[in-house]
Amino acid sequence: MAKSKPVTDSPRAEVKIVVERTIYPLEAIFGAAYIFLDRCYVFLDAPDATHVTVQLRARGPMSKAELAALGGEFENELLAQAWRHAIVEKHRDQLADITTRALAGALGAPPLPDVNADDFDDLDGAEAFDDPLGIAVPWEEKYGKAASETAAAVPGPSATAPASDLTADARKK
Amino acid sequence: MPTLRFSNAIYDGKAIDAATKIYAGHATISCREEGEYYELDVSAPDPTRAQEVADELGNYALALSIEYKKRA
Fold first, then answer.
1. In terms of CATH, what superfamily is A2-91?
2. How far is residue A119's CA from residue A69's CA, in Å, rounded to a whole number?
């Protein structure tokens, strides 16, 4: 439980809040205090092992209503921080697991093993280039000669009779 | 002369040292340990200025203490 009490008789406007640590862990109190550092002066004290007092002091003039609102906002933030802390504690293992998977995925697939020159030492020259099916023979060596002979045997357009000779034969008929 | 009392259950000693060094140029600051508290006396020719420095020093020490505890 958190009890806030605006103090207006002080020369500087401030509000004091007593927080029970059994309900609000110290991490939640720190989280809420950190958020309010830019809005007011925050002072924490631990009068005993189970309580923490939070003193919020205005940076400038502030009415009693504004002080009460400031204290209320701090208590709301305190509750939000405590709930957030509880969620993080409850799902700590899952969060660590997800983070680990994300980091592992960002590294990419494992690389292929490097190939060294030493890996080919056991292949001597004869065995390395034994090619019974002739796969390593260049196309020109394997088919080049036969292809040139075929091209010479088949008559091309230049071997046919000219069109003028054909018309002359037709006139004779 | 404002006096700040920081509980060692809340505030980190290193954070208070760091904050004291930061604000040493703006006021005269003396620090001592009293049981479970660090006590700081902040003095300046202008009392308003001394109070302002003390308030800012308190905020800075709290912020550093929270950050140190987060890292630990």
1. Transcriptional coactivator/pterin dehydratase (3.30.1360.20)
2. 77
* Residue of B4, B6, B7, B67 to mutate, interface with A, max A Cβ within 10 Å: B7
Query: Could A41 and B69 be called an inter-chain contact, meaning their C-beta atoms sit closer than 8 Å?
Result: no
| Chain A residue with the nearest C-alpha to that of B52 | A59
Residue A75 is encoded by which pair of tokens?
A: 């208590």
ipTM of the complex: 0.92
The count of structural domains within chain B is 1
Among all chains, which residue has been given the structure tokens 């110290």?
A26
Task: Give residue-wise pLDDT tens across range A120-137.
Answer: 766 655 566 677 787 888
Phi, psi at B35, each rounded to 5°: 65, -120
Distance of CA A47 to the CA centre of its chain: 45
Domain of B8: which CATH number? 3.30.70
Please judge whether B10 and A34 are an interchain contact, meaning their C-beta atoms are less than 8 angstroms apart: no
Burial label, B38 (beta-carbon count in 10 A; 0-12, 13-18, 19+) = buried
Range of the domain at B50: 3-71
Contact flag B5-A45 (C-beta cutoff 8 Å): yes
Q: What pTM was estimated for this model as a whole?
A: 0.67
Point out the residue among B51, B59, B69 whose CB comes nearest to the CB of A42: B59
φ and ψ of A41, to 5 deg: -85, 125
Distance from CA of B62 to the nearest CA of A (A): 8
